[in-house]
From TrEMBL:
SUPFAM superfamilies: Carbon-nitrogen hydrolase (SSF56317). Gene3D superfamilies: Carbon-nitrogen hydrolase. Keywords: Hydrolase. PANTHER family: DEAMINATED GLUTATHIONE AMIDASE, NITRILASE-RELATED. CDD domains: nitrilase_5. GO terms for molecular function: hydrolase activity. This is Putative hydrolase. Pfam families: CN_hydrolase (PF00795). Belongs to the carbon-nitrogen hydrolase superfamily. NIT1/NIT2 family. Residues 1-240 form the CN hydrolase domain. InterPro entries: C-N_Hydrolase (IPR003010), C-N_Hydrolase_sf (IPR036526), UPF0012_CS (IPR001110).
């Protein structure tokens, strides 16, 4: 299974409409990949909270969804299109990830559960999602998470319990916490015994330098490939069957106690 991460430079001088056209062209260049992944909020920038209400779009027929659906169909690829500022018909804004099939059909949408900002930015402007979301790719079950979710391992446990073998994480991670990014991406792979595909943004927007350093990590926590700080296309060949073999050879997930319903033995008098 060939996976490609597109680490996009979110330059504030580039209008969202122009960036959509550019990114759609990049997606079309990935024909032959089994899965293509984009970063979090790449049309506007993850820290540009003042622009969220202006750039918000409908899930069904917004400009990003339409452009990415067409690009996925033209390339014949599964596309995790990163996330957009979604405007719900009832009013709230959400940080919503979109997954398209090779026919351009929307296969899954995930509203980010953990919002970053500590009473500022996204945490104030966005509403929180409530659903744990997986989607079935022909090669593997994919669990969806976004950026700040990375710091909450309980979400990844729920994704594993839901059958996830690949964990896909679009992000807009700041450069000043790059060390945390590396540790946490590998930790989520090790504890979940799953592939982690973590795709970040490059450049600087809203005054926040982005970490870049998108990564693909295998179920043993080995980094298969890692980008630098600039815009980059990152590709690796995955072996989804290795998830099951890793879990069988080193059955740590079987030994979970907390948060797991375990069969009860006979009671003692």
């Amino acid at each position: 299974m060939r996976a490609t991460l597109l680490q996009i430079d979110v330059d504030p001088a580039e209008e969202p409409a122009a960036r959509r056209l550019r990114v759609a062209a990049l997606v079309r260049e990935q024909a032959g990949a089994d899965l293509v992944v984009l970063p979090e909020l790449w049309p506007v920038g993850a820290f540009a909270a003042d622009r969220f209400p202006v750039e918000a779009e409908r899930l069904e027929d917004g400009p990003t969804a339409e452009a990415m659906s067409a690009a996925a169909r033209d390339a014949g690829v599964w596309l995790h299109a990163g996330s957009i500022v979604e405007r719900d018909p009832e009013g709230p804004l959400y940080n919503t990830s979109l997954v398209f099939g090779p026919d351009g059909g929307l296969r899954a949408a995930y509203r980010k559960i953990h919002r970053f900002g500590f009473d500022r930015g996204e945490a104030v402007v966005m509403a929180a999602g409530e659903e744990v979301v997986t989607v079935r790719h022909p090669e593997a079950a994919i669990g969806l998470a976004t950026c700040y979710d990375l710091r909450f391992p309980e979400l990844f446990r729920l994704l594993v319990d839901a059958g996830a073998e690949l964990l896909v994480l679009p992000a807009g991670w700041p450069a000043r916490r790059l060390a945390h990014w590396r540790v946490l991406v590998q930790a989520r792979a090790v504890e979940s015994q799953a592939y982690v595909l973590a795709c970040g943004t490059a450049g600087t927007h809203a005054g926040v330098a982005q970490a870049g350093h998108s990564m693909i990590v295998d179920p043993w926590g080995e980094v298969l490939c890692e980008a630098g700080p600039d815009e980059q296309v990152l590709t690796a060949d995955l072996a989804p069957s290795s998830v099951a073999s890793t879990r069988a050879d080193f059955p740590v997930l079987r030994d979970r106690v907390l948060g797991l319903d375990r069969p009860k033995g006979p009671s003692r008098p």
